[in-house]
Amino acid sequence: MSEGMATVHPALAPHVRSIVVYDVAFGAPGVHIGMPSTALTFVLPLDEPLDVAWDGAPHTRTVGWSSVSGLHTIAAAVHHGDRQRGIQLGLTPAGARALWGVPASALAGELLHLDDVDAGLAGLAERLAAEATWEGRLAALEGALLASLRRHEHPPPRPEVARAMALLTRGVPVAEAADDVGYSRRRLSTLVRDEVGLTPKTYQRLARFSRAHGRMRRAVLDGDVSVARVAAESGYADQAHLAREWTGFAGVSPTEWVRREFPNVQATGDPGAGP
């Protein structure tokens, strides 16, 4: 497996959380689990189209040279061959407005192609395919995103909504976040749903799960996997709480996720949390 983080242009930094170049040799065809997070996902595959559906919903399956998905609370099933290469971006909710001209709520729970979202970027996949190097592909991608940023002039989210979402991401209770920005809980719920397509509580749960997923992934790569430790560090009441939330979002238990995504690694401390 080979993955690398590319540098995000300063002008794009408020809108693009990450740009990952990936070149993964799986060894055999299979299904990768695309985990939910608080970032919108934008994938540009090379070599073969991306084949993806929401887990357990085969009627949502799409195949194409680009994939755009809003925030979602179930995993994506990414079908792959022996090898996958491409570039994957994680966008902030504000990035949907800035780069595509639509609120993130319009994309929540959707699996779309890039030209469904922004016709101005419809030829981007072909431009990347024409480049012979990763440096050339990343330069073409950056140029296209900067041009898109100039093309769209949609206002960012309200500052108080952005602040409330930042508080929710850090685990602040919904009522406290609403008080902090001067809204009733009901009003904040309406504004957050309008912005990202999820309720504040669901967004908060998704943010906590995303932190746990990041910790679990780092632990796997470090060779020291403990579900109980990840649960404690991520703010869950206990290991069983994390196991329930993980299964709800990912469709499998933490240990099953490790087994499927990292078959040579053994997770510890997950009794009774089988799939």
UniProtKB/TrEMBL annotation:
Q: Which UniProt keywords apply?
A: DNA-binding, Transcription, Transcription regulation
- Gene3D superfamilies, alphabetically? Homeodomain-like (1.10.10.60)
**Gene Ontology MF, one:** DNA-binding transcription factor activity
Say yes or no: keyword tRNA processing present.
no
Q: Which residues form the HTH araC/xylS-type domain?
A: 168-260
The record's listing under PANTHER family reads: BLL1074 PROTEIN (PTHR46796:SF15), HTH-TYPE TRANSCRIPTIONAL ACTIVATOR RHAS-RELATED (PTHR46796)
Write the protein's name.
Transcriptional regulator, AraC family
Lineage, opening ranks: unclassified sequences, metagenomes
